[in-house]
Amino acid sequence: MDIFERITTDRGPIGQYQKAGHGYFAFPKLEGELSARMKFRGKEVLTWSLNNYLGLGNHPEVRKADAKAAAEYGMAYPMGARMMSGQTRKHEELERALADFVQKEDAFLLNYGYQGMSSIIDALTTRNDVIVYDSESHACILDGMRMSLAKRFVFPHNNMENLEKQLDRATKRAEQQGGGVLVITEGVFGMAGDLGDLKKITEFKNKFKFRLLVDDAHGFGTMGATGMGTGEHFGVQDKIDLYFSTFAKSMAGIGAFIASDKEVVDFLRYNMRSQTFAKSLPMPMVIGALKRLEMLKTMPELREKLWEVVNALQTALKEEGFDIGVTESPVTPVYMHGGLVEATNLILDLRENYNIFCSMVIYPVIPKGDILLRLIPTAMHSLDDVKETIAAFKVCNEKLKSGEYKTETFQDISKLRV
Length: 418
What we know:
A hairpin with a 2-residue loop joins strand 2 (37-40) and strand 3 (43-47). A seven-stranded mixed sheet has the order 4-10-9-8-7-5-6. It is α/β, with parallel strands linked by helices. 41% of the residues lie in helices and 15% in strands. The protein contains 15 helices and 14 strands. It has helices at residues 3-9, 18-21, 60-73, 89-101, 113-124, 139-147, 160-177, 198-203, 230-234, 262-271, 273-276, 283-298, 300-319, 340-353, 383-402, and strands at residues 30-31, 37-40, 43-47, 106-110, 130-134, 151-155, 181-186, 211-215, 242-246, 256-260, 332-337, 356-357, 359-361, 370-375. Helix 3 runs antiparallel to helix 12 and helix 13 packs parallel to helix 15 (383-402). The two termini are 39 Å apart. The protein folds into two domains: 3-53 and 300-415, Aspartate Aminotransferase, domain 1; 60-298, Aspartate Aminotransferase, domain 2 (3-Layer(aba) Sandwich), CATH 3.40.640.10.
């Protein structure tokens, strides 16, 4: 069969809904200044879908630093990959600052988080190694393992009893092959908001020999006494062998980093194909990241405001009987029950009649019959925003339970577009 012919009939698990949802449920356009309230289809909505945890994305000091750097350097400098012609003192300065903040010997600046994590796994492991990973690991981790030749074993999400069994299997397999064991988990899991059990995982180092790679994209800047991340929260930062995070969340920018022992970081500098064969991160993004990191470290009031909103939102949801799972982070899931049509009608009601914009997650990401509304509180939100959202959720939840959203087909959203 011709490839183009095939994709006309097989659009993929999400793509099959393109005609029904494009521009509204998928690829929606939020416009205006980054804020708790933005424009969607020409009207203001209270937005809970941005990972701008500390509100740095539109902070006046950040915008000033970004604009100044862009005016001085433009968006092209430096040209070329860092190994060839794209290295600068500012890139090195940012790496030193990141390593110092997360208490590691060295750090390597990466162009993107998704690309970076996948490339780290590919560079670190060989066909003789074994990877043991959490079943709910992010797609970038799964794709990295697909590129790797290493054998892999999975343990059910945060199931430490099963992890011990997988570590035993992996250790025996690695010894037979002359390889090593790499354990991969996340600090904060981005859908459910729960934490990887880093305390218990690191305790297994007393029994097994392995290296631990932690993806802390949602924990960096939000978790721990200083915002260092989930390792600091559990008091095990020194036991994390490879600490990874992206700038796309708390840092409200583009880029990522991996921090570890100097020898390991030097190895990655010369062996990560995603960096060796890609243009260096533009100077304005590097200088902007330096400013964001400085504010993250010196303005604890931003994190305090974030957690004030987080605690208010999650407490109110629980008091009203909503199921928010076992989140221990700012990520706030609200679990409901219903089919795909009910989920879309619920979101339509929230957006069109209550001006609440949040993300909807359905099958195949979560089991059939479940609806997950994912709220991301930030330092930009207010307690009044929380009250407004709770009131809307209460009304819409009653409609869902009463069957009001149960219709035969999708509503024609083309009539709603502007």
